């Protein structure tokens, strides 16, 4: 029997046919989705997406976790070593807009599955590359970046569509907790597998297996089509039923705007622009720290006489293990603290989100500057201030994404996330690892080779991160000037 379509007539034309995820039926009944029945399934889908985010960032930070071994194996300078991560990020960011376009128009489950399969296979293959073909290793990291982009662009939009606004922030916070958790586990996995096997190549053979499990779970649990949720859909869901209307001639063209129109619209959204630049500063600092901190700590310990120089034998991985633990702990606490602060302060200040981001960015920058200053004399204090710097930096991840989701209309969210990824990585962590390494090389070239100068060169290079961090705080302050107006416009 055909279902009553009374509520269907209340939907605006654009809401009846939203993007590629709306049901495309010329004739026939509308689709009814009960809110009560699939509640557990919705959380299982979110859990699968969080698991995928975990292993992607584990894979992302395997290279920094064994950077000393890779640098020695391929005989790379600081500049060339930094370029290794830059290649990964460049391919990641250039692929993101493509997947953003596809995610707004085509089946998101298929795109996610293809991305997981691709990067898992390439990562596994990279573990068999010999020292004679370092350029293939560089290429493989770039290809992994392409596969990763499909996931990071689309997965947050599915979570946003699954939950109402109240739960959306909580679920996005949980999703983004797995960024620092995965990053920290990447360091630990890399260092642990190298210590156990005596061969750093084994670090690249674990995450592909985890990726295979993620692919199976994605196929089994995530529905073939994931419904876009707009303001009208949310209102209808209160009554217990969401009805997706059948497509009518001429409507689909109205909903599917061109990519260029989306970009122009987003460029006029100042909250999106300034918050994206703030995120760019965060990415710059995070990329540099994630790539170089274990090596910087090693050089500081060599200068202080705490450890012996790593010349022939397998390098000590204790710094990667400790930094990985710090990344996990501060990441979890930071994301939770940021989300909770946003939840409480929104009740008294509509500009709370960008102000939280600005404040935490300034404090993080100060902590990182102090860490650099004390590194040569007190390694324990260096660890402590790096931990606080990462803690305040992590407070912003979920909040920045939530800003995007409520200042950008639903049909442009995948494109907006893709553009934000493009800009933040192009001007942020795509260049910062290479830039820090290049500056370090230039400083070392001005003096005779020594362990003291190798430490100073890295220390002086890192001061650039403090400078960029101050700008990031300023960008978030500018976001607060436009946030209320842009949010109202997106809701309308």
TrEMBL record:
It is a multi-pass membrane protein. SUPFAM superfamilies: MFS general substrate transporter. Residues 45-484 form the Major facilitator superfamily (MFS) profile domain. Pfam families: MFS_1 (PF07690). It comes from the Eukaryota. GO terms for molecular function: transmembrane transporter activity. Keywords: Membrane, Transmembrane, Transmembrane helix, Transport. One of its GO terms (cellular component) is membrane. The chain crosses the membrane at residues 42-63, 83-103, 110-129, 135-159, 171-190, 202-222, 272-293, 321-342, 354-374, 380-405, 417-440, 460-483. Its main location: membrane. It is found in: Membrane. PANTHER family: PROTEIN SPINSTER HOMOLOG 3, SPINSTER. Belongs to the major facilitator superfamily. Spinster (TC 2.A.1.49) family. This is SPNS3 protein. It comes from Podilymbus podiceps (Pied-billed grebe). The gene is Spns3.
